[in-house]
Here is the input.
Amino acid sequence: MDWTPLLSTLTGAVIGIAATLIADRNRWRREEARHALEVRREVYTEYVSALKAAGEEIRAVALGDHMSESARDAAVREAVRGTGIYTASERLWLVGPPQVVEAGNEAFHRLRAIRDAYARGVAVGSADDAPLIERRRKAMAQMRRLMREDLGIGPLGIE
Here is the structure.
């Protein structure tokens, strides 16, 4: 009895099954990578948007009239809390790579420095405000650059 046709058939079947399994695994990995990228894109968008909203809110509060220093302090802090920045920050810490998390944290701390200055009574647009705004702008630009890099998007070149 000649075993060659049987062995050839079995070898072909094993190769076919192995190739199918490898192709399925590769497809699964691509889909997982694509999903992870989409999750990071959503988290980055949420975080940047929350940082921007918090900045606008504290600026608006700082431009308003307040009866006392404690009322101004409370209003500025509440303005930040209402933007969802803390939830967005936690999401960033969960899914972002270390360099993006570090840059996001730096941008958050620059925002907090402005919040604290406005809470103390620093006037919007004053000489004391300008360096704080500049440090925040630089931190935001660095964070966006790293986020874009992580997402595989080239630099804007305008910041």
